[in-house]
Amino acid sequence: MARPRTSSQPEVPGLAARRIAADIVDGVLRRRIALDEQLSGKAAHSGLATLADRDRALMRRLTATVLRRLGTLRHLVGRFLEKGFPPDAPRAETILLIGAAQILWLDVPDHAAVDLSVRLAQADRRGGRYAGLVNAVLRRVAQNRDALIAETAARDTPDWLLQRWTKTYGKDSAKAIAQANGHEPALDLTVKGDAESWAERLRGRVLPTGTVRTVAQGAISLLPGYSEGAWWVQDAAASLPARLLGNVEGLTVVDLCAAPGGKTAQLAHAGAQVTAVDRSVNRLARLRENLTRLSLQATTVAADALEWQPENPFAAVLLDAPCSSTGTIRRHPDVPWLKSAADLTVLTSLQQRLLDRAAGLLKPGGTLVYCVCSLEPEEGEQQIEALLARNPDLVRRPVTPAEVFGHAEFLADDGDLRTLPHYLPDADPQWGGLDGFFAARLTRKSG
To answer: Domains in the chain and their CATH numbers?
Structure first.
């Protein structure tokens, strides 16, 4: 069995990546800190700066796999724990989950997964007494790997979400959504032009939406085309709402809640006079950095959209409102464990106020596109019905199949956009799917 490292001993290769992964998983599950916040920006884990690219990639895969497969992992590991996970050492649970994830789904030798997990336990003040338990349980997981993998079922979606999706979309679709969320997604890029050429250079493929999809290894900034600003990262579904504004060349368009800026970039590239508004100074700074890399122009405003007072109304308004983000679980596996049904009350109230404000920024005859990366009808369909009921100056402009590249399944009966994570299927799940999005297009009456 491994021995604790002393100050004179060099750290075992790979241990730092696993320790940081454990810290970040604990951050999500114990302290409710979003995964993205712990991976980048001012709140990022301090140890990330010292990790080599290979270890950083391993850490990301470990973290994402544990969160994506959390329900299954807890069930399978729990089978080998007579008394359950140690209640007095939450870190021991995290270590067991990380160890089991490596054995079941990552290309890590069993002995390495077990040994490094034991070392993590020994290094923890409360978890040290469970190092033997960690060793024994993970060895049993390795011995029973094939049977455990065959047993895995849809346990990785919290009951409150699965019940909601079953009610809204039916049992089969809810199951398909949960299964799609269980697979690590490919990388989607919106390119400025010549999608076929960039797909070839990036060893990817062009989706029906025009998005280039690839399976990237390593830092995104090292991919061809990044430094010259040929593309930006944007899920295929997230690229659709801005397209619903139609030809925006020369038009004044405001992008509310604009960061991280994918839709701002789309509008600027299409020739619009874009004003990007976001309340977060830091996120807006990253948006400006991305626009600079892409050689695109937009006016940026750091302000609360509910309080901001522009001099003139706009020809078009795009509102990508804050939401529960339940449509993005493929890419953000921490979402199910950070959000709850109670969050919808606060979010829907904010969305209502933002919609009323967005409508007030429109010129007569202007177009409003509202979107959320949520699967919950309270944040999408019900918001639009309520807005139309209280604002007779607005009318719905249904989206046509031609506007979504012939994918009629993307559209509801009333012409609103509704994508689900299991759409765009592929024989290889990593190449299929897209984020769950809702979008509606409205016009303010000219009279």
So the answer is: 15-151 (1.10.940.10), 187-232 (no CATH), 235-444 (3.40.50.150)
